[in-house]
């Protein structure tokens, strides 16, 4: 049980950090030229969707037990990995 709680805490903190990074990126984009805002609008939309999917996986983890926990964790790990990649890519594009 301790492992599950540790995992959920770690993921909750990571999700919070990514949310802050996404908000910072959005703030930078709002200050950019219109052309940049248009080019990055879809990317930011996708980041918000992935963040929401990660939050949904957190809720599913709270409800899961037994084998369902393991299956849900595997899915959550995939969502987390994808979100991490997208956040890092967005940061590299906005530098």
Can I get a quick summary?
This protein has helices at 2-31, 34-63, 66-93. The protein is an all-alpha fold and 95 residues long.
Give an overview in words.
By secondary structure, the chain is an all-alpha fold. It has one domain (2-93). Helices cover 93% and strands 0% of the residues. It contains 3 helices and no strands. The protein has helices spanning 2-31, 34-63, 66-93.
Number of strands: 0
For the terminal residues, how far apart are their CA atoms?
A: 41 Å
Main sheet characteristics: none
H-E order:
HHH
- Regarding quaternary structure, what we see is single chain
Radius of gyration: 15 Å
Low-confidence stretches: none
User: How many structural domains can be distinguished in the coordinates?
Assistant: 1
Give the structural class. mainly alpha
Total helical segments: 3
Overall, the morphology is elongated
Helix content: over 70%
Topology:
Blueprint: H1 2-31, H2 34-63, H3 66-93
Identify the notable features of this structure and list them briefly:
mainly alpha; elongated
């Amino acid at each position: 049980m301790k492992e599950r709680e540790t995992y959920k805490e770690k993921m909750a903190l990571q999700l919070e950090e990514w949310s802050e990074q996404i908000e910072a990126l959005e703030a930078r984009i709002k200050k950019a030229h219109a052309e940049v805002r248009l080019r990055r609008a879809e990317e930011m939309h996708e980041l918000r969707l992935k963040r929401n999917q990660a939050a949904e996986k957190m809720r599913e983890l709270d409800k899961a037990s037994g084998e369902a926990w393991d299956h849900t964790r595997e899915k959550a790990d995939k969502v987390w990995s994808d979100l991490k990649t997208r956040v890092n890519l967005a940061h590299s594009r906005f530098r």
